[in-house]
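User: Good morning. I'm curious how pyridoxal-5'-phosphate would be positioned relative to this chain. Could you predict the structure with it bound?
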Amino acid sequence: MNWSQLRQNYPATQKGAYLMNAAIGAPHKRVFETSLKWNKFTLETAAIDDIKFFECLEAARKTCADFLKVEQKCIGFAPNTGTNMNILAGTLKTKTSKRKVISTTDEFPSTTLPWLHAGFEVDFVSSVDGFLGIEQFIEKIDDDTAAVVVSAVQYLTGFRLDLEALGLELKKRNIPFIVNATQMLGVFEVHPEKFHATALSASCHKWLAAGIGQAILYLSPEWCQNFSPPFVGWSSVENYWDLANDRLALREEASIMEIGTLCFERLAALQTAIEVVLEVGLPEISQRILDLSSEMHLQLSQLGLKIHSYRKLEKHHTGIISFSIENHDAVEVAAALKEKSVFINNRKGRLRASISYYNNSEDIERLIVGLKEIIKG
Ligand SMILES: Cc1ncc(COP(=O)(O)O)c(C=O)c1O
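Assistant: Good morning! Here's the predicted structure, ligand included:
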């Protein structure tokens, strides 16, 4: 793969050292062109060929299903993971009288707040130096445990959980496994059936770089049956083009949570983003991100900074490195780096640099030079 040639297709990388991929991935030009094409289609034809919008929805569903290696009926779409988690919490509340879910202290709030709002207690597993062990989750399981709800990759530290090991333990105990794969989609394989997920949500604007406003919901085939989300809409029923308004014949598919008309241009863009990843090659992307993140980790370590990400076993690595600089405020450091066209995030008082496959060693070099200048004062 000619990575430097490929990089030309990601305009955000031309702004400097773009290391904010865990916030918003830099979209490939083709993703933008697809959005534009569908916008233009709406402008020029409005409803004349509106069947094409629904064909676009089902094409995106098929692409996502193939990407996740699941049946099409298991895939639904929402604007974000918060929506998906609210739907799952609201559904589980009616399916069980158990009221505890297990999550982690490092979680992104979209994973936990909807469960608190739905009346569940969240029992938080504490990470130790960024590490989360399977047994820490298992120890917390009791008779009141309704589910384990956790991110595949933690947004704060980049820790990659052993999903297969945890999923297997939960399956043995018949505990639903609800995964937020937002920080993993587009970097590593996300095959929910391989790790026995009951449900999974993934927002698509990060490593998949599909643009903002689209999330995937996966439901296991068992959960597709008798799935009764808190909200339904005109497109949630069998033969929805009959437009019957006096009968509730819900389909046994994840898509019944879509509630109504979707943003078709976003779905088309999502399809293009997946096609780009498949063209570059997911194994190649995974390896490139692991290599670049090891290089970035080494260089940050050599500066003597405090690294918060767990970096011992490679199976837990990702493109996210979290760190802090003694006697320096993270907000101020990120702002000073921005002045030097080095773009990283501050999250909860720490700095977070996140590196993707379209980045390169020069981006790391710019980060290190920028940090050295800031430290020197
Ligand atoms: C793990 C994780 N989940 C979800 C999100 C986004 O949540 P939502 O799609 O609800 O805006 C983020 C970051 O913004 C995240 O890091």
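Residues 80-82, 108, 110, 151, 155, 180, 182-183, 203, 215 surround pyridoxal-5'-phosphate (CB under 6 Å). The CA atoms of residues 82 and 109 lie 8 Å apart.
Let me know if you'd like a different ligand tried.
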